[in-house]
Amino acid sequence: MPHGPGQARQPQTDNTLDGSPILPSIIQSWHLRAVIMLLLDYQNVLIQNILAERFSGVPPASVDQTVSDFDGVLFHISTPETKTKILLSIQIRCFRDLVKYGAVEVLQREYGEYATDTEPGYDFSVLIDLEQLPEDRDDREALVLKFALLKRNAMAAPFEAAYTEHYKLKEEASQYTSEEAPKGVLEGGEVMSIHYREEEAIYVKASHDRVTVIFSTVFREETDRVFGKVFIQEFVDARRRAIQNAPQVLFRNDPPLELMDILGEKHTGSGDVGYVTFVLFPRHLTPQRMPDVISHIQTFRDYFHYHIKASKAYIHSRMRKRTADFLQVLRRARPDTEEKERKTASGRSFRVQN
Amino acid sequence: MAHQTPAVVMDNGTGFSKLGFAGNDSPSFVFPTAIATKGGAGGGGTGSGRPAVANKPSFLTGGAGPTGHLASKRGTEDLDFFIGDEAVSAAAGPGYGLHYPIRHGQIENWDHMERFWSNSIFKYLRVEPEDHHFLLTEPPLNPPENRENTAEIFFESFNCNGLYIAVQAVLALAASWISSKSSDRSLTGTVIDSGDGVTHVIPVAEGYVIGSSIKSIPIAGRDITYFVQSLLRDRGEPDSSLKTAQDIKESFCYVCPDAVKEFGKYDQDSTRFANHVVTRPGGRQVTVNVGYERFLAPEIFFSPEIYSSDFLTPLPEVVDTVIQTSPIDVRRGLYKNIVLSGGSTLYRDFGRRLQRDIKKAVDKRQEESRKRAGVTSSGPGVDVQVISHRKQKHGPWFGGSLLSQTPEFRSYCHTKAEYQEYGPSIVRRFALLGGPGGA
Q1: Which domain holds residue B44?
Q2: Which of A45, A46, B41, B235 is most buried by a 10 A CB count?
Q3: Are residues B270 and B235 in the same domain?
């Protein structure tokens, strides 16, 4: 049962959840499990499996698979030239946004020696030569994991940029007292926006004392929206009960002030779009915690939707149970001594005498 | 949409689930259709064959419920489960019970299946179901209610973009299109689907299963393994575990044209005997001799009397009967396109032997009928062709992958909007994918 990792983002909500709880408290109650249990992995399991198998020293074979990941990310793993050279390419919808915030540098840093000419139609490619792998088993496993984390690393660029900016601003701000600091330092940097899905985006903004990450979410389903609200509400309880040092979380239907400049009047409270804001405090912003925090926050949306769906599955199983119970009651209610007409062998009917 | 996400193809069978993306030539994941949940093993629960449902949260039971750590109080049991290989290993330890939600090809436990799907989508395939179309499979003669239940789960729990449910036999036919022998991409043919538990012979006419003529044979992969094991035991080999028997079955067995003559060949030529090396858990190696079982094991399809005493009809005869009980106007098509699917049809020369035996039976019957009618000239004869191809191990999955990558696939799916408009009964009918009017 994975415990620890979830706690980095058990957040507090401001009570900006409008309206009273719509669903009875029973639904709220088991949402906390989401916080305790079952986080999604950050790496792509399939790529990990394929590479682990190839790296284990089995005879080389040709591979050609298209693999999908969350948020419309597409991988292509193939052996175009020889069976010992595996080409792994990734296609990300928002790659252009990511490049703007330094994705190329991050990818070069992570995969420098493996990076290769980008396959047409994709955004980034690495070439793995099976004949030049590290000898050590642990090293190989680490390498497999590194490639499986390709998406995570590409998406990490803006967050890393925000971290760097935060350190810089912190440095600058430390020279002033809070009153006399120039405007630029107090307000913080530019808002970076990553349009990682068709209708949804992540916004990252660094300032001297925090990093703000805002997710815009769209629910196509009325029920999902309700679930989503309850889910976030549950974060409040979690923070109240146990975990005080989680980042702050706010949820609102109109764009937060940070985004006013970007969105303008476009999305004012249309109701479909919700904004989830995470405020990362210096506690989360230490260089040691950076990789973890970035991984967590990236999977937020998938995790959110996963648990909405898991919750529905849970409700369904209770509904099925209840139906079965009712059916049982009905069966019991049926009179068991039903009067039956009986026939003799010759075809005449008779009644049983009691 | 600027770029299309590949459709997700899921073939959930009794033993194994095959999951992957459209357009790939092999499934991305193949793992047991098993789920390990907290609490008792299979068969437990509330009498009606259902699993125990998570307790109500304690504040609803008036605080009488078990207190203690947060998880139990808040009813988190429903997320505490594993699927696939992880399930099998988790069930080996304490605390977890293993369940197989599919029995005889049909889904029996919807609670488990829903969680199995949810985990396979999010944890293994890593896709957001709202972004993808799904192609699922069902066995022939699946009750329409099961389809509706499946649709409820996929549309209501997962909000999937679009859904298509295809019959496994039809997909297996589509998979055979990659064979060079298959010329006209027809969806008429006889599918011999032999998995681990049971072998089905299913006639399909223009994409529709002729349900009344389906026949099952209680001999399949597992029986072959048992048979190999019993032969090993009879000879007193040093290792006769099921695993060894299975390995021998998979790497050494083949189908011979005539078992009696094959014995003679083995006696003359000792190079035909092989050795199989088994590494015991301790690292010690033992050598197992492999002899007549190489051809005797698959022979039980053709001469079942050597293995079983209750089922005595050879497979070619069953196929012949199935086609003879089908409507007369499709019989030629059924003979011409006999497609193999499933792991137990992979033996070398399986198709050739089957084709020869069926052809023999057909010719004999024609000869007799000509004699009775007093006709001397021979007619055009019936074309019997058994098609085996590279992808027949995961035939239905591959067929699904092939069909769902076509551009018109999406128009064949039912969408969430249609589901909401008409209700679950909409999935009782699907337009025939890959049929006439298609590509």
Answers
A1: 8-167+395-428
A2: A46
A3: yes
